[in-house]
Amino acid sequence: MSSLSLLLRTPPRPHCTAAELASSRRPPPARRVSAVCALGAASICSGSCDGALSVFTRAGELLSSCQAHEGGVNALHALRTGRLLLSGGKDGHACVWRVDASDAAPLIRCAAAEHAVRSAASAT
User: Fold this and answer.
1) What would the pLDDT profile of 33-46 be if each residue is shown by its tens digit?
2) Residue, of 77 and 121, whose pLDDT is higher
3) Is 8 helix (H, G, I), strand (E, B) or coil?
């Protein structure tokens, strides 16, 4: 029997069992990172599949976190040496955030599209 016929007769296996998935150390799907952006030399911003934005030091210490989008964060882009952040989400909104502000409200929030915002960039 050739290896090809053996391969074709082997029943498919799931990638992992429910028990393996439950015991894995991966974060749940809602907290998986979907976008990352450097904010100057000192910090990093991440966006997650549940719509949260989190700012960390380069050492990994959480500085702040907020709910930015209804749905996942697809795109992040730092503006003005890391003081402003542009985010785009699955909810079709683009937002501009002041990174050093104590409140968690966007400076600008606009409905950019009927569909998800997939990328963010600026001309500076």
Assistant:
1) 899 999 888 889 99
2) 77
3) helix
Nearest to 53 by CA among 29, 69, 30: 69
One DSSP character per residue, 12-63 reads P--SS-HHHHHH--SPPGGG-EEEEEEETTTEEEEEETTSEEEEEETTS-EE
Instruction: Answer whether 77's CB lies under 8 Å from 106's CB.
Output: no
pLDDT tens per residue across span 14-30: 445 555 545 555 555 55
Structure tokens that stand for 5 in this block: 């016929």
Domains and CATH numbers, the chain: 29-124 (2.40.128.630)
Going edge to edge, which strands form the sheet with 62-67?
Answer: 33-39, 43-48, 52-57, 62-67
Per-residue pLDDT at 12 exceeds 90:
no
d(CA 63, CA 69): 19
